[in-house]
Design goal:
CATH architecture of the largest domain: 3-Layer(aba) Sandwich
Order of helices and strands: HEHHEHEHEHEHEHEEHHHEE
CATH superfamily of the largest domain: NAD(P)-binding Rossmann-like Domain
Helix content: 40-55%
CATH class of the largest domain: Alpha Beta
Distance between the termini: 51 Å
Number of domains: 2
Radius of gyration: 19 Å
Strand content: 15-25%
Length: 272
């Protein structure tokens, strides 16, 4: 057992390691907080921040999440909530891809936006936020526009990709790239009171089916707008799907589309 492992074992209380002891270990042994977290989980102990995960996730599964890499395309309405939830869940490597800056019209719904962040690059703000809430998680900010030409490089090494873009063209290109790279894609879209989520595995044509009647333009969100609560609902459903993809657990929204209507509080499932 290494000196770090011995320190962690000696400071475990009910198999939990406090944040204070995680920081102390990083300083004392000259390692990163990420290395400390992996050491804790490898010992079948648990960082105290994850203790409320214990009834649904084993320590082995928590380690699996920590060793996973998720790429999120978009850091706005959906993306901000997705990034936050992935970090709090304990996904160890997150790549945030977006080329945009925060504007005033983002303030009504985008979790990472604030008056102080107006004009700032979204992915840079995302990186700061993740360092603040879970410093053991690594978020790589990529200020870039996603397209088919750059997609392979941007998504390299990802175990799962999350669609948080705001236009149909980019969604279809993202689905095409993920299929080529054989990467699972968790899709989500919102407009007004409404939204939908689906998980697309390599070889599926779910995205083409969903948007088979699309004839151009940004989509229905241009007409219906987006309030504060709709992106939070869709993002939470997407992160739930990501968790299942990474752990190989549960029944995915594969070949089916979950559609929600918050105005009438209805949820429907559409076969794809």
């Amino acid at each position: 057992m290494t000196a770090l492992q011995t320190f962690l074992s000696e400071n475990a209380a009910d198999e939990l390691i406090s944040w204070q002891h995680q920081q102390q270990a990083a300083t004392q042994f000259g390692v990163s907080l990420a290395e400390v977290e992996e050491a804790i989980l490898t010992l079948q102990l648990l960082p105290a921040r994850y203790q409320r995960n214990q009834q649904m996730l084993s320590t082995t599964q928590q380690l699996q999440l920590f060793r996973s890499k998720v790429a999120v395309i978009g850091a706005g309405g959906l993306g901000g909530y997705i990034l936050e939830q992935l970090a709090r869940l304990g996904v160890g490597q997150i790549v945030s891809i977006d080329d945009d800056i925060f504007e005033e019209n983002n303030l009504n719904r985008q979790l990472l936006s604030s008056p102080a962040n107006l004009g700032r690059v979204k992915v840079e703000v995302a990186a700061e936020r993740i360092r603040e809430i879970n410093p053991a998680v690594s978020l790589t900010p990529v200020q870039a526009w996603f397209d088919k030409q750059s997609g392979g490089e941007l998504l390299a090494g990802a175990d799962c990709v999350v669609d948080a873009v705001d236009n149909v063209t980019a969604r279809l290109e993202l689905a095409e790239v993920c299929c080529q790279l054989k990467m699972p894609l968790v899709h989500g879209a919102i407009a007004g009171w409404y939204g939908h989520v689906a998980t697309v595995l390599p070889g599926d044509d779910s995205m083409q089916t969903i948007y088979r009647h699309w004839q151009g333009g940004k989509g229905v969100e241009q007409q219906l707008g987006n309030p504060s609560f709709t992106p939070a609902v869709a993002a939470s459903l997407q992160v739930g799907e990501v968790c299942k993809v990474l752990l190989g657990q549960g029944r995915l929204l594969r070949n089916r589309q979950l559609v929600f209507n918050l105005l009438d509080m209805e949820v429907d499932e559409i076969p794809l």
